[in-house]
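Renewal narrative, Specific Aim 1. Our central claim is that a sequence can be written position by position from structural information alone. The example that follows is taken directly from our test logs and has not been curated for this report. It begins with the structure tokens describing the chain, in the order in which they were read.
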């Protein structure tokens, strides 16, 4: 599956637009890691526990988006975007979305 943030895939032409596809997940860290993150917030610096959580969540949201596109028969997703929103304290939703298309190589 070709996944791009651009409205087209260089070297390919879009032959069919299948529609919007999306994947999302809501993630929260374990209370022990939340305590560690709170301590890091006091002294400053990267909060690695949350960086890891959001990285894993983006990968899962993207995997789910690709799975939806495959079910439609797509071989590419264009205009991919990611959004994050808090749904409760220490939990975030990650949404990946784009347009599923069928592309073929340009001659």
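The sequence written for that structure reads:
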């Amino acid at each position: 599956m070709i996944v791009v943030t651009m409205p087209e895939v260089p070297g390919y032409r879009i032959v069919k637009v299948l529609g919007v596809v999306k994947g999302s997940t809501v993630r929260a860290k374990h209370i022990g890691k939340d305590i560690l993150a709170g301590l890091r917030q006091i002294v400053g610096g990267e909060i690695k526990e949350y960086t890891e959580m959001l990285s894993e969540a983006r990968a899962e949201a993207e995997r789910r988006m690709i799975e939806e596109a495959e079910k439609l028969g797509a071989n590419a997703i264009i205009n991919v975007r990611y959004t994050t929103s808090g749904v409760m304290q220490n939990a975030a939703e990650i949404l990946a979305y784009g347009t599923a298309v069928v592309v073929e190589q340009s001659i």
